[in-house]
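WARN retry 2 of 3 for item q-0093 after timeout on previous attempt; input resubmitted unchanged.
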Amino acid sequence: MHKELRWKIPLILFVLGGFFWLAWPVEEKINLGLDLQGGMHLVLEVEAEKAVEFSMEQRVEDIKHALGDEDIEVDLVTLNKDTNVIRVVLVDPIDIRGAETVLKNFTALEKKDPLRDGLELVYQLREEEIDFIKDNAVQQGMETIRNRIDQFGVAEPSIQVQGERRILVQLPGIKDADRAVKLIGKTARLEFKMIDESMTPEAARKQGIPPGSEILIEQIKEKATGKVIEEKPYLVKKRTLVTGDMLTAAEVRFDSQFNEPYVAINFNSLGGMIFGELTSANVGKRLAIVLDDHIYSAPVIREKITGGRAQVSGSFTPDEARDLAIALRAGALPAPVTILENRTVGPSLGRDSVEAGINSVVIGMIAVVLFILIYYRLAGVVAVGALLLNLVMLLGALAYFGASLTLPGIAGIILTVGMAIDANVLVFERIREEIRIGKTVRAAIDAGFAKAFRTIVDANVTTFIAAIVLFQFGTGPIKGFAITLCIGIAASMFTAVFVSRTTFDAFMSRKKIERLSI
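OK item q-0093 returned
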């Protein structure tokens, strides 16, 4: 027995010290959830159909270039956004077979209708590809939002997919709610397009916009207030020459002349090469820098730009420039998002919740401790000590895993307290039964722990399985409850069985005890 105590007691002290170190100070190590410290609760819906539309528009451009590379003359390539059908009308029937060969490389498209007049090919996006694009838009959107929030600096955000098209975002302790909403909701689809200088925007509106072009707006803002003071139209070619997908870096800088912020961007090797060729071929022409279908600037290309560097300037405030840089670094959302729900929990509500939660734990602890001390006397002291170690281990584990403490989590702690005491009650009642039938104190303790062990394991394992199911299939608050319950069960198994037994053994090793205060 003495040999076992030599390693058991140091192990208990090591575990107690380690978890205490992890948990202390509690206010710094344990992150409070949205319901306790206040913050923002957002429900976003991903416009997944837009992701399909963007994908089809890109395929149309790719088809045009692929056919052009094979010297196949095309009259027009059109897209029906409602049906995801692409029509390719050729100039010469002799190019039909070559065009079909090129289009076979676009495996996501399937040929639908037979040839019309020997000049037209009709292809439609496959249904499985549509489903993939929509599902991917939601998953990629969640990861993009997560990257933006991480760079924004919110501690312990909760971001998860809810249903098929929705994303739940909870930001505890957020201070600038409006800025966070703008950053999260910004699609950040960066595109470089050439200005169509064949006519003015006013003439295009009167005479009709040329095929392959569109009118986009640049908003001129007042720097002091951020209000839009002018909307300047541009006639822009639809074809996207370079996109934000080719960026490797985006950071805020200030120009030396007016100390105004701008966003400096770096392209990857492919983007740098394409951007260099683009600027080389269009010296003297204007290049539109477009973000989410709005022009930020339209500078004249003075010379070939090498090195894969460019800048996005506009009527920025420093915060707007920083948020734009964050959005560009995190990547564009694959589709726009709509904010369905935007709730802000005030700090006063958070304080009330914290106080109510703490009071419930304290009152529950006091009631349980008083009962266990009165009913089980000296043996109850052992149970109370094990219970306190259980709480220390639970808080230390929450701090180690970076889990946020929520109101449901506090409910899980209270339930853990009850289960930890329940395990000791099972042991103590077994020990009482063994003493009643005439066994010695040592024999009663051995038999009590041995016989109660299986019951304790059964009760805790079944509860642990239920907690795992809640964590797997539950939403945010349910997950918080499940996490604390799982950690608490694991801790109670250690404290109620191992720690309590070691404590009894330590007392029994000192002297021969004839009566047990239980």
